[in-house]
């Protein structure tokens, strides 16, 4: 029995999409471009393969820019005891991470600190004291 070409193409695309969605740190982010973002948490995407924090950051000219900050996998965050409820929308946060290579307002997050002092590690394997991008001095993603 022959399988119709549209069915084969649909299956091929469905299987390829998850593989295309995942990437290495160095494919999208610049380990030589650290960034510290201070702003308001506007959205939390608790999705795989990586979660995303969206931070509204006030620029010196008064314009607000929304940054998308990639976190580690949600199952890795949950193994650390974190839940989506730990990221209340409207919270003032400071996020440390590394800028995207493409110049967009996006970053790979290493840590987030809330106004009440809570500090969470966002990356896959490197702790907030690691001091470098994944793949550097004790880190890896």
What are the main properties of this structure?
disordered C terminus; 3 helices; OB fold (Dihydrolipoamide Acetyltransferase, E2P); 5-stranded mixed beta barrel; 141 residues; alpha+beta
What does this structure look like?
This protein has one domain (23-121): Nucleic acid-binding proteins (OB fold (Dihydrolipoamide Acetyltransferase, E2P)), CATH 2.40.50. A five-stranded mixed barrel has the order 1-2-3-5-4. A hairpin with a 6-residue loop joins strand 1 and strand 2 (52-58). With 141 residues, it is of the alpha+beta class. It is 19% helix and 37% strand.
Topology:
Blueprint: H1 5-21, H2 25-28, E1 29-45, E2 52-58, E3 64-70, H3 74-79, E4 92-100, E5 106-114, E6 119-121
Parallel strand pairs: 3-5
Antiparallel strand pairs: 1-2, 1-4, 2-3, 4-5, 5-6
Short description:
With 141 residues, the protein is an alpha+beta fold. 19% of the residues lie in helices and 37% in strands.
Taken from the alpha-carbon principal axes, the silhouette is globular
| Tally of separate domains | 1
Order of helices and strands: HHEEEHEEE
Estimate the mean pLDDT confidence. Answer: 79
Give the second-level CATH assignment, the architecture: Beta Barrel
- State the secondary-structure class: alpha+beta
What radius of gyration results from the CA coordinates? 17 Å
Q: What fraction of residues sit in β-strands?
A: 35-45%
Q: Which spans have pLDDT < 50 for at least 5 consecutive residues? A: 15-22, 124-141
Number of helices: 3
> What fold name goes in the CATH topology slot?
OB fold (Dihydrolipoamide Acetyltransferase, E2P)
Query: Briefly, what CATH class?
Result: Mainly Beta
The fourth-level CATH homologous superfamily is Nucleic acid-binding proteins
Main pleated-sheet profile: 5 strands, mixed, barrel
Give the CA-CA distance, first to last residue.
Answer: 44 Å
């Amino acid at each position: 029995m022959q399988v119709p070409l549209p069915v084969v193409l649909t299956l091929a695309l469905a299987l390829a999409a998850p593989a295309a969605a995942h990437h290495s740190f160095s494919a999208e982010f610049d380990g030589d471009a650290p960034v510290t973002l201070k702003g308001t948490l506007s959205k939390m995407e608790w999705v795989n393969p990586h979660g995303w924090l969206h931070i509204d950051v006030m620029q010196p000219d008064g314009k607000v820019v929304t940054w998308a900050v990639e976190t580690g996998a949600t199952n890795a965050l949950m193994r650390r005891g974190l839940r989506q409820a730990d990221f209340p929308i409207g919270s003032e946060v400071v996020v440390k991470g590394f800028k995207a290579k493409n110049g967009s307002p996006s970053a790979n997050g290493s840590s987030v600190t809330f106004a009440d002092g809570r500090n969470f590690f966002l990356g896959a394997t490197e702790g907030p004291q690691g001091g470098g991008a994944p793949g550097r001095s004790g880190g890896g993603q």
